[in-house]
Amino acid sequence: MKTIKFAGYDWEIKISDDLTGPGPNFYSEECVSVQNNELILEVIEKDKKLLCGEVILTESLGYGKYVFFLSSRIDLLLDNIVFGLFTWSNSALPNNCEIDIEFSRWDNETITNSQYVVQPSKTSDKLFRYDTHLTGDYSTHIIDWKPNEINFWSIHGHFLTPPSKNHIIELWTYKGNAVPKPNNEHIHINLWKYGRHSLREEKDKLKSAKIKDFMFFPYLHI
User: Fold this and answer.
1) Mean pLDDT of all residues in 158-178
2) What's residue 196's pLDDT?
3) β-pairing verdict for 138-145 and 150-156
4) CA-to-CA separations, 32 to 17, 27, 221, in angstroms, rounded
5) What's 95's DSSP letter?
6) Burial class (CB in 10 A: 0-12, 13-18, 19+), 29
7) What separation in angstroms does the CA of 201 have from each of 76, 77, 78, 113?
């Protein structure tokens, strides 16, 4: 297991020599780096292989507020690249304790580029799609996971709470019966190619993502 230090935590780097999900894709340490205290994930082509990046928090944190401070234009990703911020447990079948914030057009330039998801997402009440349009590199995205609800926030700039309504990109609350209970879940951050089409190089479109910081605030039941 290869790990890196980022935001005061240890993260395992996903490495796969065979095609594996999501995608399926190859995952490589070459697509993961920490530079100037920022976590950088990339999708690269090497030796006729497409390589993707994913890191997994080594700690299981449970209920609480997960805050991701991003520092790149995730609204300018290539249409068939997916950038994911999510919880995942190999123990919590069948839905893996999965809560997602994902940025992608899923290889369809006509649809919105962002979504909040509580798995399973087969019904529309567990998935909320929206558009992210940034005016700069900085944005904040929050999963606030409580026993009976999950609150999602997306904010312009780096803030724990939006200083004004104009800073809010989107927000959504899920209160249904699919709110998972903690079960050895870990935070994953990944960048990967979706679908069968190869990456189509487009001017001003990105195949990398930068994370400036990550913070966690445990849920305190009073």
Assistant:
1) 96
2) 81
3) antiparallel
4) 16, 10, 36
5) T
6) middle
7) 12, 11, 8, 18
The domain limits of the chain are: 3-218
- Indicate the SS3 state at residue 42: strand
Architecture of domain 3-218: Sandwich (2.60)
Q: Per the structure block, which two tokens stand in for 188?
A: 């994953």
Kindly state the tokens that stand for 143.
């999963």
pLDDT for 65-93, tens place per residue?
999 999 999 999 999 999 999 999 999 99
What 3-state class would DSSP assign to 105? Answer: coil
Alpha-carbon distance 141 to 74, whole Å? 11
Peptide bond into 180 cis (omega under 30): no
- DSSP designation for 221: -
Q: Are strands 138-145 and 64-71 parallel, antiparallel or unpaired?
A: antiparallel
Mean per-residue pLDDT, 128-134? 97
Q: Compute the distance between CA of residue 130 and CA of residue 123 in angstroms, rounded to an integer.
A: 16
Band of residue 197 on the pLDDT scale cut at 50, 70, 90: confident
